[in-house]
Amino acid sequence: MARRCLTGKRVKNKLVFGDVFAGCGGLSLGLLNAGWIGQFAIEKNKDAFNTFAKNLIDGKHRSFAWPKWLPRKASTTATFLRKYPAQLAKLRGKIDLLAGAPPCQGFSLAGRRLYSDPRNSLFRQYLDIVSKIEPRLLLVENVQGFSFPFKNIVNGRKKHRAYSEILRKELEGLGYTVFSELVDFSEFGVPQNRNRFILVAIKNGDSALDRLNGRTPFEILRSRRKAYLRSKHLQSRGAISAKQAIADLEVSGKSLVTSLGQPFRGFKQIKYVRGSSPSSFVRLMRRHAQGTLNSIRLPRHRPGTVRQFQRIMTTCAQGQSLSERDRKRLGIKKRALTPLHPRRPASTITTLPDDIIHYSEPRILTVRENARFQSFPDWFEFTGKYTTGSKDRRHDCPRYTQVGNAVPPLFAEVIGRVLRDLGS
To answer: What is the C-alpha separation between 363 and 316, in angstroms, rounded?
Structure first.
């Protein structure tokens, strides 16, 4: 099969994809690694898009075949639909895969889960794009809460309905066969406990349905797990632990230097030295990385905060969120706070930097440590602010948030391989 890219170039035996709600690029990176050709990506936040562009549009390791008609800047899906109807019409039937990870905060079990949350309607814009370009395959990732019922008041009566079911019925109405499951990413080399809702849809009549041979995409995914991990030189028995993922980034035994490229003085970072015997996971993350690591700036805690972290590390169970009893005993109001266990996967990486404490050092994690837990390679550079104040959270997407919102590239690659083989 030969495909014509949106740049006009002919690409032999390559499948093409677009990424909607692309964030900083975790999903796209995995698909590119799986052999797909990226055509366009839509991300409304300029901070996240700048990171995406630096690595995946202008980057030397992976790059999109970006169309000339689409500006290389942040854009909303609404703007994309409104400004480029002619271009979207020309894309009909020419995109093999449309991937999308709609913003998940409105669905998260940690949030308020309001049916009326405006972020919950963004997936309908995704559906509008689907109806206009009719891709052969669809891939959606979201939090577990996407598949749990919401309480909605309609005409004075409570109705319980999950957005995953709404999406399924909408896609079936557009002519797709839909498959979905909750997937534990730690089973695919991602060193954290991260369970996510994954949806794969195939256009009715497409040859990809015949290639399933009575199986679901998820049955194929699970059947390839061990082979995929072996291809990455990763262990197939047991999950990768927190220490296996970030031991080389510990402060202990390292020199500290002034943090590079920062407008605020006083921050330090480790002088990174490649260890002689890193774990297989670290070796995978280091591949193609050169020079000083990006985003290893250490937090600057007050002495009282350090003492509190030390009390938590010595008196609370590692690897699980602090109990109500522990929070009351220590005078902690924050509901989600977890000291890592060195021999277990990290807890779910979130957008908030102070949700997790290091397993052996009284501090929160660096952006790079969070990125390791999300399986971003060390060559991938995050840009913009590290954190932001509460008044700016609606508009800013700092580095911690970019990482926490991302789809882990290691999982994106393995599902991308499955979809590539189905679509070939």
So the answer is: 15
Q: How is residue 320 written in tokens?
A: 């699980």
3-state helix, strand, coil in the chain (%, to 5): 35, 15, 45
Sign of the dihedral through C-alpha 313, 315, 319, 323:
negative
Q: How far apart are CA 285 and CA 370, in angstroms?
A: 13
Distance CA 320, CA 341 (A): 8
CATH superfamily of 2-235+408-423: Vaccinia Virus protein VP39 (3.40.50.150)
Q: Give the separation between CA 267 and CA 251, rounded to whole angstroms.
A: 14
Sign, CA torsion 419/213/194/373? negative
- Does an H or E element contain 421, and which? helix 409-423
- The structure tokens 């909303």 sit at 76
Closest CA to 388 of 126, 47, 24: 47
Task: State pLDDT tens for residues 335-389.
Answer: 899 999 999 999 999 999 999 999 999 999 999 999 999 999 999 999 999 988 7
How far, in Å, CA of 139 to CA of 422, rounded? 13
Which residues are CB-neighbours of 20 under 8 A, at least 6 positions away?
41, 42, 77, 98, 99, 100, 102, 126, 129
Asked if 175 and 138 touch (Cβ cutoff 8 Å), the reply is no
In 3D space, the residue among 208, 209, 202, 196 whose CA is nearest the CA of residue 410 turns out to be: 196
Cite the DSSP H helix spans in 114-256. Answer: 122-133, 163-173, 207-211, 217-223, 225-231, 242-246
User: Model pTM?
Assistant: 0.91
